[in-house]
Write a structure and sequence with these properties.
There is one protein chain. This protein is of the alpha+beta class and about 160 residues long. The chain has three helices and eight strands; from the N terminus they run βαβαββββββα. The strands form two sheets. Strands 2, 3, 4, 5, 6 and 7 form a six-stranded mixed β-sheet that branches. Strand 4 (about 55-70) and strand 5 (about 80) form a beta hairpin. The protein is elongated, with a radius of gyration of 21 Å. The two termini are about 35 Å apart.
Length: about 160
């Protein structure tokens, strides 16, 4: 758990106790907090949403927009990948078993850390492979040149990678 996001912790106790209670959310996560979750951003994460008690079930629905500052997995070039995502969670203060933990957002102390929720959702929504373009040629394994920018002329046909 990240300690930098304590300013994003909100109490959900009153929402849990009052059916049909609602709380509108509108916030921006600062650069230091985003970076603490390993996602520096060109455009900071912005959340717009609603916490709502629907017949005793606390729901969190929000939309996030941001532009994470990423790096191409093949050539290491900077990649800006705009994100516009909607997320939805059922919030509980306890679960009957550990198997249920994946289905719900657990807030045992009736406190919800919005930065932790949002940055985790963002991280999980990102593709596993980040590329600057689908046909990225990557770095030359011999000289390290970015093969998208220049053809270095190295003979890479006989290279065998060994891992020790």
């Amino acid at each position: 758990m990240q300690e930098l996001s304590s300013e994003y912790r909100i109490s959900i106790r009153s929402l849990l106790l009052r059916p049909d209670e609602k709380k509108t959310l509108s916030l921006e996560i600062d650069a230091e907090t985003a970076e603490s979750y390993g996602l520096p951003c060109v455009k900071l994460p912005r959340l717009e949403g609603l916490l709502e008690n629907r017949a005793g079930v606390l729901m969190l629905n929000y939309q996030m927009s941001c532009v994470p500052a990423l790096e191409c997995d093949r050539c290491l070039a900077p990649v800006e990948m705009p994100v516009e995502e909607e997320f939805s969670h059922v919030i509980v203060t306890e679960t009957a078993s550990e198997q249920n933990d994946a289905e719900y957002l657990l807030a045992p102390d009736a406190m919800l850390d919005l930065a932790e929720v949002a940055m985790t959702d963002l991280r999980l929504s990102m593709p596993t492979k980040i590329l600057c373009s689908p046909d990225c040629r990557g770095l030359c394994p011999v000289c390290g040149q970015n093969r998208n920018l220049t053809d270095c002329g190295c003979d890479t046909g006989d290279i065998t990678l060994s891992y020790q």
